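Hi L., both proteins are below.
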Amino acid sequence: MLIKPIKLAPAREQVAQSLRQAILAGEYRQGELISLDSVAHLVGVSRTPVREAFQLLAAEGLIELRPNRGAVVIGLAPEAVADSFDMRILLEGEAVYRACMNGVDTKLLERYCDEGDLAVKYNEVARFTKCNMLFHETIWEASGSEKLKGFLRQLWKGLMVDQAVDKKANMAEAQEEHKELLAVLKEHDATKARQVMRQHLLCSKINALNSLAKKNKSEAPRHIGNV
């Protein structure tokens, strides 16, 4: 049946997603103080889902909770970004190894690579970001480990993915790395696939940190809401 029930995300997840996007976009800056009341007013919900959203973002490392005061934005601190990428290098290296051993769908990965080529050709960052996510998610899924998938999704949410591919040069570089990884997966070489994935993520880490350094030069902390 084509028509399926619509599943709406809980309010806490919707609030968390809205705040996450704002933080990653630089609307809330590192060191900025945000209160439950100010966010609740902005998004039009009660304090409870906002408090729960704060807890989710704190677990991702994007904010630091302040009892009875709200939270302080950690945001895209270089140390946090580097740590997240380091964890991805370890975990996604294992994920691609398992995916290769399990027989990942290389035709599906090839389709995402083809779509990525078009995104690079026309310099469409949003389109490439989506292809990039689908490419990696396919590998996570093929790993056969629910825990690995869960950890990697959590890390991805807290990463500055959009910043890592904010220039055409970086998109083209990542796209070529995807193609290299796809070729290795077609050869069923799990050990080499792990090496290629780790190198790919290391390059993404360097690009992300370089983008962050440039962005932070023009930013200074400010205060939002009564805390």
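That was the first. Here is the second:
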Amino acid sequence: MSDRVWGLLEPLLPGRKGSWGGKARDNRLFINAVFWILRTGAPWRDLPPDYGDWKNTHRRFCRWRDKGIWEKLLEQLVVDPDFEWLMIDATHIKVHPHASGARGGNQEMSPDKRGLNTKIHLAVDAHGMPVRILVTEGTRADCREACKLIEGIDAANLFGDRAYDTNEIVEAAQAAGMEVVIPPKKNRKEVREYKKHLYEFRHLVENAFLHLKRWRGIATRYAKNAASFVAAVQIRCIALWANIL
């Protein structure tokens, strides 16, 4: 992690100098350790000793996950997103066999002919920067999560592929004051017009998935706990907003 990026993150972290509560030991080393795990997709026990004890690092990662610290950190970094365009899409994530078998049953994963899958639902702004993340089982239809992705966001235009061409989504977007840039399905009885010249820019959300999956811990799900995988995606988005590509 560069000094510039650390200077951006340090004031937002718990345990920093001047904050209430106990002082955390070397937040920078801890953040670098978590980044290393997610970049490589390695098991926690393979964390190099230079980053500290793997058990303590994993426990701290889980504490921050359970307290919502990763989510809050991402919210603080998402500064002034450009909501001229709001783009939504989803992508499948292959689940590693070691991620199955959680206590109480598999979490947010479902089987298909290629094995277990998880799905990331993503909303990005006009620059392709992530602003909202949802994780579901792989067989969850994209359109069923769309309203959650756009809820409360004041955007001018909503972009999506044909999977999002449902009356519910179109009406929800229009009620929020968004112009719908979603191509109609071929079997739609009432053909709806959309701005084809704007739709060409929908590749920005695809690019966002490409950036997310550059880290092996995101491209393949290794976490049994769904909350841990959500935290991993949030951390990758933190890295993107901090300009760590």
